[in-house]
Amino acid sequence: MHSIQQQLDNLQAKIDQAVERSGRNPQAVTLLAVSKTRTAQEIRAVAAWGLRNFGENYLQEALPKMAHLADMGLVWHFIGALQSNKTRDICQHFHWLHTLDRIKVAKRLSAQRLELHPRSPLNVCIQINIDREPQKAGIPPEQLPDFLEEVIGLKGIKLRGLMAIPKPVVDPHHRRQTFRALSDLFEQVIPMAGSDWDTLSMGMSADFVEAILEGATLIRLGTAIFGPRPSQARQSPCADVH
Ligand SMILES: *Cc1c(COP(=O)(O)O)cnc(C)c1O
Predict the structure, then answer these.
(1) Are residues 93 and 66 in contact, defined by beta-carbon separation less than 8 angstroms?
(2) Does ligand 1 lie within 6 Å of residue 211's CB atom?
């Protein structure tokens, strides 16, 4: 059986290889460990290997673990479906939010962050519904410029880039096309997005190689780091709706 250290060494080698193929340097891609359903102990083991960025989907589950791990100085990303009555907790406890898709929520997040952490804006990625799936969170790609215009001046949030959860498909060529569409969209709005625009959050355990080849700067991996989740089907991000 492989230890978690060996598993992570192998994974990092795979990531490095893809980053090299994409013509960038190894620092260009951040590995975000998706720790939903994992215990504080499991997170500690992964942090000991050297990972610093962790992603959580459910506040009720995340907050006690985060309190347990407060001594570790980890960077916490909220990557779950965003409910408007939970923005305050996110502002208080998280460094990043990957799932912004409503202007009203952006305004509330900004105001609450300014109140709770006046000196450090919340890092935010806008979620794009890249495959235009009717039940999926995220804004349709063509609405991004108008959306940006509405949120660009908000002082409590720092607009870092885009995030998407593409429809799972088997064909790697198809996957790359979808990631490329997100990457193109990211570049298209650079002139209006401001100087903090530097993050393309795409790629999960099943498709991170294609995501890296198309320019991902942050990949979100759960299974590839920790192994299969209990009741993986129920937890599938593809079922995310609001
Ligand atoms: C669960 C989840 C992941 C990680 O999924 P794996 O397939 O386990 O790598 C990534 N992003 C989001 C938004 C998730 O909900």
Answers:
(1) yes
(2) no
What are the distances in angstroms from CA 146 to CA 97, 142, 165? 20, 9, 21
CA of 85 to the centre of ligand 1 (A): 23
Q: Which H, E and C letters describe 4-23, residue by residue?
A: HHHHHHHHHHHHHHHHHHCC
Q: Is the CB of 222 under 6 A from ligand 1?
A: yes
Q: Are 18 and 209 within 8 A, CB to CB?
A: yes
- Select from 151, 142, 238 the least CA-distant residue to 181: 142
Beta strands 218-221 and 30-34 are parallel
**Does the pTM of the predicted model rise above 0.85?**
yes
The H or E element containing residue 34 is strand 30-34
pLDDT in 10s for each residue of the chain, 242 residues? 568 899 999 999 999 999 999 999 999 999 999 999 999 999 999 999 999 999 999 999 999 999 999 999 999 999 999 998 999 999 999 999 999 999 999 999 999 999 999 999 999 999 999 999 999 999 999 999 999 999 999 999 999 999 999 999 999 999 999 999 999 999 999 999 989 999 999 999 999 999 999 999 999 999 999 999 987 544 444 444 33
Could you tell me if the CB of 57 is within 6 A of ligand 1?
yes
